Amino acid sequence: MTERNRWPMPHSLAEKYDAYVASGALPAAPRVAATVLLLRAADAGFEVYALRRAATMAAFGGMYAFPGGSVDPADADAAVGWAGPPRAEWAGRLALPAPQAGAVVAAAVREVFEEAGVLLAGPTPDTVLADVDTPGWEAARQGLLARERSLTGVLTDAGLVLRSDLLRPWARWVTPKFEPRRFDTYFFVALLPEGQRPRDVSGEADETVWIAPDQAVARHERGEMPMLPPTLTTLTELAACPDLTAAWSASGRRDVSRPIEPVVERGSDGAAFAVF
């Protein structure tokens, strides 16, 4: 992203920013995170799976986003069965050391399973499970949520390998400095595996929707789908792709080596987020 982009800030966030500046506090260190845009073909092109975070959530309540969350220490387990590009190749794509890059990819797989019930794994490097909507897999998902099990353990017990080739990086965004909870988030895209279907199982959302990217942007502009700049920008970029093939192809050319961190600008029209 080289052009300057600017988005009006909600009044509540502008007040939070002013309070942060007045306090003189140091910014919180961002936690590394991963989020996944699940894509599927549709009559009009393709759709993306989005969820609205419950208003009670500590971070970004009421905002539309994608399944995701922080990287867990267990995501760095090198013993997990792995298929697709090796960690060293992901290191180059994500501009991270290989162990950290592997942890981010594993976190993406774990989070989309925990929050949407979609598992990007298979019994061989070129197959993927067709159905994980079963009592056994639900128990495994609950174990992951409770941190009673690890992704390595879940996949090993089932004789599966993580399919890192089913993910492609799209962007990397860092939460602005005034937020008390900050994230350094890697955005990935993934095609919904045939036979699997997302389910509203996270407990963190009060609405989920499959929607075409351009329709989501239009609904945001009408005030119907509140979202923060990373979500809106990603959907705007995806809306430029005419179909699923084009979106997947575009994801293979994305450069995520430079994180995007919005700054706050004050002007005659109020406060706004800006990136360059």
Automatic annotation (TrEMBL):
<keyword id="KW-0479">Metal-binding</keyword>
<dbReference type="InterPro" id="IPR015797">
    <property type="entry name" value="NUDIX_hydrolase-like_dom_sf"/>
</dbReference>
<protein>
    <recommendedName>
        <fullName>Nudix hydrolase domain-containing protein</fullName>
    </recommendedName>
</protein>
<dbReference type="InterPro" id="IPR039121">
    <property type="entry name" value="NUDT19"/>
</dbReference>
<keyword id="KW-0460">Magnesium</keyword>
<keyword id="KW-0378">Hydrolase</keyword>
<dbReference type="InterPro" id="IPR000086">
    <property type="entry name" value="NUDIX_hydrolase_dom"/>
</dbReference>
<keyword id="KW-0464">Manganese</keyword>
<feature type="domain" description="Nudix hydrolase">
    <location>
        <begin position="29"/>
        <end position="233"/>
    </location>
</feature>
